[in-house]
Amino acid sequence: MAQRKYLEKSLKYFTVIFGLGVLYILIDFAVDLRPASVHSSYRFTLDDLRPDQARILRQDNLSILVIRRSTETIAQLEQPVVELQDPESLRSKQPGFAKHPLRSKYAEYFVSYAIGTDLGCPLAVLENRLTETCGNAAYDFAGRALRGDNEFQNLAIPDYNFSDEFNRLTINP
After folding, report:
1. pTM, 2 dp
2. Where in the chain does DSSP place strands (E)?
């Protein structure tokens, strides 16, 4: 008898704890409890971005790379290249709209996170390619990883939108 009462009491405690856990999960999904420093979207202003010019935009802890590509660069990026690690971007982190050689929503503009995928360091912009500041990782102007000593992914592409005049960029992390 004592064992049965102990079992019933334990089952009641378990039911109460389980119910509180389910209630906590429901409230957590219903209410956005993110810290104030995390935004639902980030807005950047693009002024005077010339063809084949890259710019790294920063807000809070978010760094975004934006490249305005010339028609010559676009034509060059659309050609097959043997020195790419993942030419079809099959192992890349990218939205559905970026699953093509230019890896962008608009051919003229390339947008990605400004963090390399080899060692996770910030990117530096050279003449016609991008490199990681603390390693040998290199990328073309479509964010595709060039062959090197290590295997690494193409640059990660966020979900983004431009204004009609391409002077404002909104990132949805």
Report:
1. 0.71
2. 42-45, 53-59, 62-68, 109-113, 123-125, 130-132, 138-139, 159-162, 168-172
C-alpha of 155 from chain center = 8
130-132 and 123-125 as β-strands: parallel, antiparallel, unpaired? antiparallel
pLDDT tens string 7-38: 888 899 999 999 999 998 888 777 765 555 55
d(CA 98, CA 96): 5
DSSP character string of 104-127: SSBTTEEEEESB-SSS-PBEEE-S
CB atoms within 10 A of CB 76: 15
* Secondary structure (3-state) at 172: strand
d(CA 2, CA 7) in angstroms, rounded, equals 9
